[in-house]
Fold this protein.
Amino acid sequence: MLQVTNLKKKYGDISALDGVSFQATPGRILGLLGPNGSGKTTTMRSIFGLIALDAGKVHWQDHAVTSQDRLNFGYMPEQRGLYPKMKIHDQLVYFGRLHGLNTSTARKAADQQLNDLGLGARGQDPVETLSHGNQQRVQFAVALLHQPGLLVLDEPFSGLDPIGTETLGKLLRQQLDHNCTIIFSSHQLDLVQHFCDDIVLVHKGKVRVSGPLHEIRTSATRRRLDLTFDTPASLTPTSGEEHPAHHTQIPWLPPDAEVEVLAYEPRNISLRIPHDLDITSLIQAASQVGHIASIAYQPPTLSEIFLDTVREDVNEQHSEPHSVDHTTKQQTAKIARNLTEKTPAPLTSNTADKFSSEPS
Amino acid sequence: MNTLSFIWLIASREIRERFRSKAFRISTAVVLVLIVGAILILPMLGDDGPSRYEIGLVGTEQETLADQLVQTARETGVELTTKVFPDQESGKQAVDEGEIDAVLTDGPLLTVKRNNDEQLPLIVNVAIYQEKLFGIFADLDPVQQEKLALLATESTASLEEIEQDAESVLVIASSSSVILFLVIQMYGGAVLYGVVEEKTTRAAEVLLATLKPWYLLGGKILGIGLLGLGQLIFFLAVGLGTSLISNQVELPDVFWTTLPWIIPWFLLGFLFYAASFATAGSLTSRPEDAQNTAVPVSFALMGAYLFSIFVVGPNPDSMWSRTLSLLPPIAPMTVPSRIAHGGITPLEIAIAFAFMLVGIYAMTRLAGRVYATMLLRTGRPVKLREALATEKTTLAKQ
C-alpha cells in the first residue's frame, strides 16, 4: 500500500501541494484527478523523490520509500521519455534490466509486451519511427515490463483516441491480476472515471474529494435528470423565453425545490435536482405537458462533483456579491472546459480490440 | 543488482548505441582512411628530385672526381653513374638531347638539364669539396690523420642526430597535443549532447525515477570514455601497424617514449572535461543551446591546446611552460608534449597527475550536483550560480 501524508511544496509564492494526503491500495486503481496545474504531477514526482518536498511523507508498505523500493515501481511521466533512435525491443530490455530483471527475463517480457500491444513486428524499429499513439504504448510497456508492485502513470490517456483509451484502460485492469497498486492522473474526469476504483480530486494543491468512486457518486446530494419529449411545443415555458433563467418559469417543476436548469432545448431538458426530491411525482407532472420519450436519472458525473466543490471554494473566497457572480462564472467555466474536454464516448471493448493495432 | 552493475548497464548502453550509430561508423572510417593514407601516401609526395642521375665528365680533373661523385651521391640515397666525354661540346649536346642529366666541365662548371633540380648541384659541390679536403688530409701525418678522422666521424654523427631528433620531438609533441585535443573534444562533446539528449527526450525523468543521478552520470561518462579509449587505441594501433608493415616512416625513439603516456593522459583529460561538459549540458535542455552553455569548457580546452602548441612547443622549458603546464585544464595536452620534449621531471609529472586528480574530483562533484538538480529542469538555459542555488531533490541527496 502507498501512503501519502500531508505533502507540501511551494514554488515561490505558489503552493503546488498544500497538505495532500491519500492512500492507494493493492488490487485497485486510484485516479488522481483534477484540472491542469492542480498538483497531480508534483504529487507523482514526489513518490519517486524527483522533487524536494517542503513537508510530508511518502510511505510504501509502511516504511519511507527507498531506492530499492523504486526498482519495484513503474513510472510513466507526463512528458514521455524514450530514446528516439534506440530500437524498441532493446529499449524495453534496457529499462527492464534497470529495474533488476536479468537479460533473458527482460527479453521475454519485452516480447510479451510488444505482442500484447500489437507491436510485435516493430521490435527492431527505432522508437522515432512509431506514431505518437504507438510511442505512448511503448512508454506504457516500459512502465509495466517488470510487473511493478506500484504503477504510477501521469496523464496516460492524454493524446489518445477513444480506441487507445479503452485499450490502455483494459491493460491497466489486467495489471490488477498480480495485485498491483495503480495510480494514474488525468484532467479528463468523465472520460476516465470508469477506469477508477478510487478517486482523489485535487485542486490548487489540496485534496477536495477522495474515496471509492461509487460511494462518492451515490452519496452526492444532487442527481441529474435528462428528459426527452416527443412534442417540442409542450416545452414552451410560460414566459416564452428560449432558456428560462430560473426553474420556477417551468410550470411542472415544484417552485420551492432547489433545481438547476442545465439544458433547455425544444425536445430535451436537463436538470440538477436534490437527491431526495420525489422523482416519480416530478415525472408524472412533466408527462402532463407532453409525452416523454426517454428518462435518464443518475448521480452526478465526476466533473459535476468537482465543479460543485470548486464553485463553493470560489464563493467562499469572494465576499462582494457582484464580483462573486462574475468571477465564479469565469473560473468555473474555465475549469469546466478543462475537465470536460470534448472526447468521444468510449467504445465497447470488442470494438477496441478490433482496432487496437494502430498503424503508424 | 549492485551499484557497479547499474553503472555498467548504463555504460554498456552508451557504448552499444554509439557504436551502432552511423555517425560513429562514418567518422571512424574517415579517420582510418586519413591515418592510413597519410602514412602511405605522404612520404611518396615529397619530391626530392630523381633518385638516379647520369653525369658527364669532361677533362682529366673532372674524371678523377668520378669515384667521389658516386660515393657522395650514394650517401644521400641517390644512384649516380658517370660517363666521360672527349670535349665540352659533345657533353653539352648529350645534355641537350637528354642522354645525360648534367655535364661537369672545367671551371668546374656544371651544366644541368633541369634548372629546378637543387639536388644534383649539391651532390657535385659536396663531392668537389670532399675531394679537396681529402687532398689536404693526405698531406698530414698519420697521427693527425687519425685524430681528424675520429673528430669528423663524431661531429657528423651527433649533428645528424640532433637535427633528426629536434624535428621528431616537435612532430611527436605537436601530434600528441593534436590527438588528445581532438579525442577529448569529440568524446567530451558526446557527453555534452548525451546529457542534453536525455533532458530533451525526457528520458531523464524515467531513469531518475529508478536510479540515483550519479549512477546515470557515472555510467554515461564511463561508457563514452571507454568507447573513446577503444577508438584511440584502435587508431594508434592501425597507424603503428601501417607504419611498420609499409616501412614508409621510420619511428624515432621519442615516439616510443611518448606513446605510453597518451593513454593515461587521455583518461585524465577526458574525465576532467567530460565532467565539465556534463555540467554545461545539465544547464540546458535544448541541443541548440548546448554550444552556448558549453562555451567556457570549449574555450578552456581550446586554450589548453593552443598553449601546448604555441607556448610549450617552441619553448618547453620556459617559466610559463613549466608552471602552467601542470594545471588541470591544460595538463592533459601539455604534459605529454613536455614528455616528448624531454625536459619534464618525474616529480613534475607526479605533481601534474595529483593536480589532475584533484581537478577531476572537484569537477565531478560540481557536475553531480548540477546534473542531479537540473536534470528535470526544462526550458531556457540556467546559469551555473542559479543551478547551485537550487535545492537538491531527494535523489540528489542520496
